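Objective 1b of the project was to move from sequence-level analysis to a structural picture of ligand recognition. The entry below was assembled by the postdoctoral researcher (A.K.) and checked by the PI before modelling. It contains the amino acid sequence of the target and the SMILES of the bound compound, magnesium ion.
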Amino acid sequence: MSLTQRLTEYIAACFTGLWIQSHEHDDALAEIAQMCRDQNWRLAVWDVERGLQIPNHSNGQPSDAGGNDPLAAIRSINALASADSSAILVLVNFHRFLQSAETVQALAQQIGSGKQSRAFVVILSPVITVPVELEKLMVIVEHDLPGREQLAQIARSIATEDGELPEGDALETVLDAAAGLTRYEAEGAFSLSLVRHSAIRPEAVWELKQGMLKKSGLLQLHRGGERFADLGGLDALKDFCLQAMRRQGHRDPRKRPRGALLLGIPGSGKSAYSKALGTETGRPTLIMDVGALMGSLVGSTEANIRQALRIADAMAPSILMIDEVEKALSGAASSGTNDSGVSARLFGTFLTWLNDHESEVFTICTCNDISKLPPEFSRAERFDGIFFLDLPSVRQKRAIWKLYLDMFELDPQQPKPVDAQWTGAEVKSCCRLAALLGVPLTEAAKNVVPVAMTAAESVARLRNWASGRCLNADAPGGIYTANPGSSVVVKPGRKVRRDAANN
Ligand SMILES: Nc1ncnc2c1ncn2[C@@H]1O[C@H](COP(=O)(O)OP(=O)(O)OP(=O)(O)O)[C@@H](O)[C@H]1O
Ligand SMILES: [Mg+2]
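Corresponding predicted holo structure:
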C-alpha cells in the first residue's frame, strides 16, 4: 500500500497525530501534497529553515505564512481547517524539537482538539522517537522504499536517449540491483551509470549500493564468488536450501521458505556455506552485523534493526546472513539487568520479523553455541531447518582433502596425517602450511591443533545437544545422531574419549 493510501485511510478514520518515518522527505512531501490536492484538503508545511509555508491551492505556489516558531505553527493549524476542508500540518524533522515540554504539550493538545476541527498533525522524520506523552496519540507510518515499478519509472525518466535504457532481462537485472535504494539514491546510481557507460548498467548500481549499505553500517553486501563446489560434503544442507528457494515460484505465502539455522563446531564451514549460497541461487547476500546494530546509542537500536530488515525486505529476493547469532543475541536472556532491555527488544523485533515477513528473504543464521540462544529462537517454524555441521565424515574429509590438495598444488599421493579429529578448516590449514613451508603434509600437520582437542568439552556438549534435535548437514534426509561409538556425553570429572569420534 502506498504512503498516500495509508495516510488517506488514517485521515478518514480521524487519526489526528501521524508520524511518518522517511528518509526521503521531498518525495514524501510530494505524495502528501498530491493527496491534499486530490482530496481538496489544506496543507501547511513547517521546517526550521523556512518556517510555516502554506502552498496555495489556486496557483500551486507556496505562500509564506511567516514565522519559524514551532509552537506558533502548531497553534495555527486549527484556524486553517474549515467545515468543508480538513487541514494537514506537516512538521519536517520535528524530532529535533520534542525535547521541549511546551512543544510536546502543544502537540498533545492539538492532536486532541484536531478531532473536532479536523486538523491533522504529521511529523516527518527519519527516525521514530515518539515522546511517551504522545505514544498513545500518534500512529506510525513507514514511508516504504520504492518498489520495482517506481524504480523502473525513475530509470525511464533518466535514460531518455536511445539505447540508454536496457530491455528485458537486462532491465530486470538493473532493477534487482537497485532494489533497496531510496528514490534519491536510485537516481544517483542511474545517473552515474549513464555518465560512465552511456547506458544504465547494473555495475554502477552495485557499486553505489555497496557504499550506501556500508555508510549505514547496518548491512554489508557480500559480493564473493564462492561456490558450493568449494565445499566438501554438506550435501543435505546444499540440497535443502536450493530446493527451498527453487520451489517458490508460486509465491504462496504459506509456503514461503524462512531460512536455516546452522549449528556447528568452529571451522566446520558454516560461514563459508552461507556465503556460497548467494552465488548458487543468484541472490544478493546481505550480512547483518548485529554488533554494529546494537550501536552506542541505546535508543536508536530498534530503529536500526527495523531499518536493516526493511532494506532486506526491499532487496528481496535476497539472503540475509547473520553470522554467530548467539554472540549478538546472547544478551537477550539477561537483558533488562545489564542493558535496560535493549537486546531483548532487538531480539523480539527480529523474531517477529522472522515469523511475519512476507518478502522472499531467506535467512541464514550460524551459531557455535546453542545454549547461549534463547529457546524461542530455535523453536519449530522459525526456520525451515536446523542443521548440525559435525566434524566431517571420512567421505566428506576425502572430498575436502582433494579440494585443498588441488588448490595448493600438492602431491596427492603423499601420505596424509592422522586427521580423525579435524574439521575442514584444519585440513585447509594443513595444506596451506605444507605449500607455504614446502614440507610434506605429515610435517605441516604438527602445527595443526584441532579444535576438537582444544575445546573437547564444548564440542562434545554441542554434539550431545544436536543429537536427535538437528538435521544432519552432510547426510541427506537424516536427523543427526551422535555416533554411538563416540562418548559424547560429558559427565563432570570424566575425560572425553576422542577416538572414533567423528566417522
Ligand atoms: N566442508 C568444507 N569444505 C571445504 N572447506 C571447508 C569445509 N569446512 C570448512 N572449510 C574451510 O574452513 C575455513 C573455515 O570455515 P568457516 O569460516 O566457514 O567455519 P565456521 O563453521 O564458520 O567456523 P566458526 O564457527 O569459527 O565461525 C574456510 O576457509 C572454509 O573454506
Ligand atoms: Mg563462521
